[in-house]
Amino acid sequence: MSEVHEIANDLMAFGLTRNQATIFAFLIFGGSCDAEGISNLTRIAREEVYRILKKLERVGYIDVMPDRPTRYAAASIKKIIDSQIAELESRKKSLEDKAVNLLSKLEKMKKVHDEEESAGIRFNITLGRKRGYSILTKMWSNAEREILYTTSKSGLRRAILLDYHPFNVAKECNRRGVTIRVLSDIDQSNLEETKAVRKLCQLRHVKDQNSHLHIIDGRQVMVGIVVHDSDPSVDVDACDLLTNAPDYVSVMVNFFEAMWNSAIESKERISELKGDDR
């Protein structure tokens, strides 16, 4: 059996398990044999022998002889070698194709990354209302064409009540010819501030508006949501995203315009609220 074990070890290099290789090598040296004989001589359990024989038959490595009991014979060993080499060549070709695809993807990603770096694209997170307003004030001050702004009902009050709110530079923006459009939830709680705000910008009403969004010249966006927004004077731990990524800015502009087109003119909303008082 030493020859059987030696050839079995070599056959394992071609993708066969030890028991598969042992049975195949046994059939090479011993000739045709039934399953019970294979089991007795190789000392592999009969159930395992049957499973292996079925698999070797399925891939064409053994021939089945219609005797009683059924006998099995090894096919050409060259068939195994050729089959395994063909499979390895196929895998090699597949890996080469995947490698080309992977390198192409990496090159494209690197190119996009480099373009973003060269264009100065950034995504920054700002924490705290005062810090956010400080950044926004600079953004408003540098605006050249248009400012799009959404805020909550308390946010509209802050625009007038807080001396560090970016809306404090609205007059300066008007003098430079910068258009300001604002969307907010207008109700009795911010009616007086609404009247003051609409003197400096175009203002429309959106019910339950609770996000705040600033879009500057269609080039920069700061966006965030304040959960605890009842007191306009409190500096809550607001969290905002600031970016100049063109695709993101474009989405936010479309979002604003969709809301703007369905919003109610502030003058009409004020008339509704005054009617509620009567």
Give an overview in words.
With 278 residues, the chain is α+β, with helices and mostly antiparallel strands. Helix 1 (2-11) packs across helix 2 (18-30), helix 3 packs across helix 4 and helix 7 (153-161) packs across helix 9 (191-197). The protein folds into two domains: 2-75, Winged helix-like DNA-binding domain superfamily/Winged helix DNA-binding domain (Arc Repressor Mutant, subunit A, Orthogonal Bundle), CATH 1.10.10; 123-277, Endonuclease, Chain A (2-Layer Sandwich). The model has no long low-confidence stretch (mean pLDDT 86). The chain is built from eleven helices and eleven strands.
Notable features of this structure?
single chain, about 280 residues, alpha+beta, Arc Repressor Mutant, subunit A, Endonuclease, Chain A, 2 domains, 8-stranded mixed beta sheet
Number of helices: 11
Q: Catalogue the unreliable spans.
A: none
Q: What is the alpha-carbon Rg in Å?
A: 38 Å
Q: What general outline do the C-alpha atoms trace? A: rod-shaped
Output the strand order for the largest sheet: 4-10-9-8-5-6-7-11
Specify the CATH class of the largest domain: Alpha Beta
Helix-residue proportion: 40-55%
CATH fold category name of the largest domain: Endonuclease, Chain A
Q: SS-based structural class?
A: alpha+beta
- The residue-averaged pLDDT reads 86
- Level-2 CATH architecture of the largest domain: 2-Layer Sandwich
Tally of separate domains: 2
